[in-house]
Structure formats: structure tokens, C-alpha cells
Amino acid sequence: MLLAGLAGMVDAIGFIRLQHLFVSYMSGNSTQFAVAVGRGRFGEAAPILVLIALFVLGAAGGQLIAHITGRRHLTAVLAVVGALLAAAAVLDTAPVPMVLAMGALNAAMHRAGHLSVSLTFVTGTLVRFGQGLGDLIAGRAEGWGWVEQALPWLGLVAGAIAAGAVYIRIGSAVAWMPVAASGALFAWSLAIPAPE
To answer: Could you tell me the pTM of the whole model?
Structure first.
């Protein structure tokens, strides 16, 4: 939930500062890219395609870091994400390090116990939550574990709300908010025992 909250903060800041483009929600960017191409607006489509490519590179880099660092991958990925977000803040919410950071963040965690986890996108999470609700209504639900699927969505939304509210008060300095959050998560990850 907290990692998804970090993604929500960064995506909200990117959305506000980058003229309604996303730095972590590539489904939205993909739709905007396709619409621009379909309308023949290739000049609008090109920068969106660059964001998508950067996200993929960030995800690949995060996955490599996770493989190299093994059991302590959460800490290592958070260190890289924090450094990239700090670079973005220094460069006045530069999109390149923000998008790379959000791609990399996905390698921080793939599962939380028995649940598959999505950190920078929540469509699949909402689908699994909705399917669990449908099973409950049909009398086919086996327990209440499906309710946990709402936690990443709640985290992402809470992070985005916080960033939007803080942006109103301090403007572009809000870029330091996810830097602080990633630093706190990094410190917390140091205290978590490495998984077996």
C-alpha cells in the first residue's frame, strides 16, 4: 500500500507538471499515444512514445537490480528510485528520471504474501477486487482475502490526493515529497528482515 502510495504521489505530480501525461500509468499514455497517431498528430504522439519507452527501460533496469541484489532487492530498488526522484526534484520535476523511477519501482515487490501486487497501476487490482465481490454476491467467495486487493488502489489514490493537496500550497517544490517518502520507505526496508 505504501509503495503504491509513492507511485500515486509521483504520478499526480507528473500529471500536474507534464500537461496531463502520466509518469507511472502507461495505459493512459498508451491510449493518448494511439489517439494522437489515429488523428495524425505525430508531433503529439512522439513525446508520449518516449515516456512509454523510458518506463520500459526503467522496469528493465529495476528488474536487473532486483536480480543482482537478490533477497535485499526491495532496499536496492528503493535506493535507485529515491536517487532518480531526487534528480527529478533537482531538475524541477524532470520527466526522464521520474518515469525511469516509476518503471523501476515495479521491481520492488511482485507479491505480498499470497497476493500478486501491482505498484504503479491498479486496473488489475480493481478487476481482482471486483471479481471477488462478484464471487461474494454469487455465494462463491472463499473467505475475505479478495478485499486486500483494494489496498494498492487505496494507497495510490491516497498518495495522489496528498501530492495534489501539497502542490496547491508549495507548487513545484512538491517534487521533494516523494523523495522524502522514498527515503522513509528505504529506511524502513533496512529494518525488514530479508525474505528467505
So the answer is: 0.90
